[in-house]
Amino acid sequence: MTQAKTQRISTWTSRLILLNVCIGQAIVGVDQRALLVALPTLTESFHTHLTTIQWTILIYDLILIGLVITVGRLGDLFGRRRFYSMGLLVFAIGSALCGIAQSPAQLIFFRALQAVGGSMISANGRAIASESVPREERGKALGLTSVAFHVGFITGPSLGGFLVDTVGWRWIFYINVPLGLWGAYLAWKIMPETKNEGQKVSVDFLGALLLLVTNSLFIYAIDQLPRLGWRHPTFLLTITFSAVALALLIITEFRTATPILLLDLFRNRLFSASMLSLFFVALSQSAINFSSRFIFRTSWAFRPLKSDGSS
């Protein structure tokens, strides 16, 4: 009887852990897309330009992509539960601060803080989920966490449009606060700590920094190009620094034992071709998703919820 009861408790705990991780993945996915619908509203609320307010989206993606591998390695070294629960807490605090932001600069800064928490959730959540279930169920657990993220990613615009239409854009962030705080508390209470005991884990901090700098400078240069022109010193200086950071990144990744980017993969033609194809797909899809909100709102006078075709 005792053994059966222990097994039931163990199974129940693993289900709670999986539910917690799925919720964490979902809110990260939601916040990647929910704010897209609110961009026209934000430009009006803050009386600012599109080129400024678009950084509320860009900074989130840049920080999330730039840190996810690094904080995953740190989770291996210092404990995944610690970094995952801390990520939920940082995400909740960043969301609350985004909700009370009074200027575009504040909103962009707090979105960066929110993305730091999101990277900690994304990097460690799936590893925790895979280790909380029996080996034969790991594929199912990872599949569920992936589905949870994409459900959040897909429903983000509709949820964002609904909130903008009803209670206001600030609630896009406020709804994350109770979920994040509950998730952080539950994770700390029920998740076992997992880390590599006695194993040295090398973290490519320099590579992560150079990757973030390269992407940030390149995007900023492209952002300034239509207004300044390709001959303007600001554009030339920024794009040059981006190229230098890229060169340093490549050199660093070839020399480090545990690179953040495995550049040898690009020697495979099929892999390189698929990455190039994915780049153009993401480029065209992102451009349409970003610009369509303004066309629907300004040219066709659609409401935020209807502008995503969801009503």
**Broad structural category:** mainly alpha
CATH architecture assignment of one domain: Up-down Bundle
**What profile does the largest beta sheet have?**
none
Fraction of helical residues: over 70%
Question: For this structure, what is the CATH class of one domain?
Answer: Mainly Alpha
* Assembly state of the chains shown: single chain
Average residue pLDDT: 80
**How much strand content do the residues show?**
under 5%
Query: What is the total tally of β strands?
Result: 0
> How far is the first residue's CA from the last residue's CA?
54 Å
C-alpha-based Rg, rounded: 21 Å
Shape, principal axes of CA atoms:
globular
User: What fold name stands as the CATH topology of one domain?
Assistant: Growth Hormone, Chain: A
Low-confidence stretches: 1-9, 307-311
H and E order: HHHHHHHHHHH
Q: What is the helix tally?
A: 11
Could you characterize the architecture of this molecule?
The protein has 311 residues and is mostly helical. It has a domain at 2-196: Up-down Bundle (Growth Hormone, Chain: A), CATH 1.20.1250.20. Helix content is 79%, strand content 0%. It has eleven helices and no strands. The protein has helices at 2-45, 50-53, 55-78, 80-99, 104-131, 138-166, 171-174, 176-190, 205-228, 233-255, 269-299. Residues 1-9 and 307-311 have low confidence and may be disordered.
